[in-house]
Amino acid sequence: xxxxxxxxxxxxxxxxxxxxxxxxxxxxxxxxxxxxxxxxxxxxxxxxxxxxxxxxxxxxxxxxxxxxxxxxxxxxxxxxxxxxxxxxxxxxxxxxxxxxxxxxxxxxxxxxxxxxxxxxxxxxxxxxxxxxxxxxxxxxxxxxxxxxxxx
Length: 151
Known about the structure:
The protein is mainly alpha-helical. It contains 7 helices and no strands.
């Protein structure tokens, strides 16, 4: 059985420009003198599409890393905003916190560290009624903390 052929230098250059350049697909093809018919043949080639899929997966992985790096600061800022003097900003920050999906991570039950009754539901799983009650409690607490005679 013969060794599978590698991508040509032109195919590799097109993929590189598609992912790193500022040009749109058609401009990349024109830059590398690739006709539409030839490009469609490349797209039918498993080696070419596999390389594109690898680049897409890599881009998604990098995006998740960037988001993960900034998640702590964003969460801390949201919590700060719940104490904002402007009630609308505090309300929206509270809603955003309540609506946050549960972070993806290891399943604690899979490790056997928690029993089913001790697992707290994710904030994103709150019912609208419960979210409303939590907001009412937060609003009441905020009113209770305001000095008398203040607005």
